[in-house]
Each structure stands twice: as structure tokens, then as C-alpha cells.
Amino acid sequence: MLDELGTAIAGGELPPGSVLRLEELQVRYGASRTVAREVVRALETMRLTSSKRRVGVTVREHAEWNHYDPRVIRWQLDGPQRQTALRTLTELRSAIEPSAARFAALRATPEQRGQLRALGSRLASTAKARDLTTFLGHDIDFHDLLLSASGNPMFSQLSAVVAEVLTGRTGHGLMPPEPQPEAVALHQEVALAVDRGEPDRAERAMRDIVIQARDEMVELSG
Fold first, then answer.
1. Tens of pLDDT along 179-212?
2. 93 near 202, Cβ under 8 Å?
3. Which residue, 98, 69, 102, 103, is CA-closest to 85?
4. Bridge-partner residues for 15, per DSSP?
5. Which helix (H) or strand (E) holds 49?
6. How far apart are CA 179 and CA 16, in angstroms?
7. Beta 56-59 vs 49-52: how paired, if at all?
8. Do 157 and 70 form a contact (C-beta atoms < 8 A)?
9. N vs C: which end of the chain shows fewer Cβ within 10 Å?
10. Which has the closest alpha carbon to 141: 163, 110, 167?
């Protein structure tokens, strides 16, 4: 119920100003009043809707949504506005991840540096094997670790956002059948630069990763 309503709102099927009534939701989904209330509460937490007595549950304007909520991101990537969502998310990554790589090169612990190098090697082996599922898992872990290694908790909390972008690319066929060797090499370059404490090099390589990802998505989306 939550996924269907969230997808309908994020995809524009239920545009801003649409009113949802609890009783109608109960009938439509065969749900109890308690379940319907919980779903409405979840939508309100994501700022997709607001509730007023005698009015009902109203879909909020797009600008008011919590665009950092992973579920909102997932629903947008599943809908007709996927390209717009990918563009805005890539812009966010362009603004954050190169800086995170820079700070990781300055602040990462010895353990984090070693883990990043190991993940770079795993990305290379799974890319060669064309194992996109395992590659995706390592890729998510790589970016999660990098954001954490930046030492900035605000960067670190964007990990779930980046994970949804990476998952969405794979799930919607916006990844090549075999990850590009250049992309894998750039991840290893970031890991090496962080390991050696070279912030300029780490920042430059991470920016190249985001640019290449953007270009791949544009090419594969036609």
C-alpha cells in the first residue's frame, strides 16, 4: 500500500493538491483503519502529504518533499520522471563525493584506507566476471566507506542516497553489461590516492567517476 501510493505520488499520478481519504484507502486496499493510518503517517514523515481535519490527506508540492529519503528516491527512479531524478541526484553526487574523497585522503584511518583498496580490487574482479549484482554490492560499500572516511557525519548520512542511485542504475538497465574498465580504474585510483594521503588526486578521480556515470546513463537511456 505504501509503495503503491508513494510511487503514484512520486510519479505524478497523484499530483500536488490531490486529496486522499482514509476511508477510501481502506476500501481500495482492503486494509484496516490502523494500517491505513500507519501508511498515511509514513507518507507524512516523508513530507509527501499533509493531513487536515475535514479536508483529508493532501499531496504536498514537489519542493516540500524530503528528497533525501531513500524511499522517495526509489519511487522517483521507478516512475516516468526517472531521467530528471537521475540528473538531480548526479548533480548532488558531483557536489558532495569529490569533496568527500578529498577529506578521506586527509582523515581516513589506516583500516579504512586498507578496506578501500580491498574494495577497489573486488570491483575489478567482479567487473571482469560480469557479475553485476556482486559488483553493485561492492560499489555501494565503496561509496559508503568513502563518505564515512571523510570524517564528516553529514556526508556519511548521504550514503543511503548514493546507494539508491547506484541500485537504480543497475535495476533500470543504465549500467553496461560489463562495467567499463575506465570506471573500475578510477575507483582504484581514488582508493590509492586516499591510501597515500593525496587529496587533490582523490578529488579529481572521484569527480571523473561521477562524470563518467552521468555520461553512461545518458547514452544508455537513449
1. 889 999 999 999 999 999 999 999 999 999 999 8
2. no
3. 69
4. none
5. strand 49-52
6. 39
7. antiparallel
8. no
9. C
10. 163
Three-point CA angle 50, 53, 58, nearest 5°: 30
Distance between CA atoms of residues 59 and 38, nearest Å: 16
Q: Do the beta carbons of residue 83 and residue 206 sit within 8 Å?
A: no
Q: Which helix (H) or strand (E) holds 56?
A: strand 56-59
CB of 34 within 8 A of CB of 27?
A: no
C-alpha to C-alpha distance for 172 and 195, rounded to whole angstroms: 33
* Spatial separation of the C-alpha atoms in residues 115 and 133, rounded to whole Å: 20
Q: pLDDT tens-digit profile of 11-58?
A: 999 999 999 999 999 999 999 999 999 999 999 999 999 998 888 899
**What are the percentages of helix, strand and coil residues in the chain, rounded to 5?**
70, 5, 25
One-letter amino acid of 92? L
Selection from 86, 87, 192 nearest residue 146 by Cα: 192
